[in-house]
Amino acid sequence: MKDNKFYWAAIVVVVTIGILLFVNRTGMPLEDAPVIPAGKKPPPVAVSEPSVAMVSPGSAVQKKPVQVAASGVADTSSEYTLSERLSEMQKRRPEQQFDSALVAAAVQRPSAWAPAEEIPEDLPLQPEEFTDGRQFIELDSLKIETLMPGDDVKIAIEETGQEYTVSVDRVEKHDYNSISWYGSIQGADGNTYSVSFTRGEKLTVGGLDTPEGHYVLQAHGNKGWIASSGLLFKIDPNVEDAIYPHEVEQDLTHAH
């Protein structure tokens, strides 16, 4: 008998809940909420919560990567996308085709050159100039080509023992199939030092003002050298360096 009572009580509860759900869905008014006797806890109410993506232990929330730019390094590149960078490069060099994968890799590289593993003996230098103390380098010519205003690129000069960061300010295309990149180094002394690279089809020349002095760069293809102005323009104390106007006029006359 006791089991029958529990059976019918359960049936009543189920039917009541069903009626309440039906009424709630159809918008009909509900009866007043039942009064809970003192001393009793209200029944638990199921509350839906917004779904949250589960993150495994040790993992981090992935952020949108910084443009690996002008912008890439985060790297030393600026905000240019790879597509925009390729488009600008193609405008500057319409006769060349740039591989997007190679350009993307060059953008990631922070430096404009690396020390040469061996002295490139095929450079157009006098025999004594191979041993006069100039720094031989492997120029990253594609890295230079990728540079856009706003980019940073690192340059190392062995003589000073320093690595400098050049901020590219502007790029200029010349009529004679050459391109110049102009930038600056912000010195620890608070001064700004000018830097420029000019590239033709194969030859690259550069002038680098640094807090430690002026340096000259020259490269044929990817093989080149860097030397200080003091090394390149030595003054022979036995040679008179005075300039006489009549000698200049004679030189100009012979030139014409």
Structural description of this entry:
With 256 residues, the chain is α+β, with helices and mostly antiparallel strands. The chain has a domain at 110-232. It has 6 helices and 9 strands; from the N terminus they run H-H-H-E-E-H-E-E-E-E-E-E-E-H-H. The protein has a 9-stranded antiparallel sheet with strand order 1-2-9-8-7-6-5-4-3. It is globular.
Largest sheet: 9 strands, antiparallel
Based on Cα principal axes, name the global outline: globular
- Radius of gyration over all CA atoms, rounded: 37 Å
Q: Structural class of the secondary structure composition? A: alpha+beta
Helices and strands in order, then pairings?
Layout lengths: L1 H25 L55 H11 L7 H9 L4 E3 L19 E5 L1 H6 L5 E6 L4 E12 L5 E8 L5 E8 L3 E8 L2 E8 L2 E6 H4 L12 H11 L1
Antiparallel strand pairs: 1-2, 2-9, 3-4, 4-5, 5-6, 6-7, 7-8, 8-9
Give descriptors for this structure:
256 residues; alpha+beta; nine-stranded antiparallel beta sheet
Compact summary:
With 256 residues, the protein is α+β, with helices and mostly antiparallel strands.
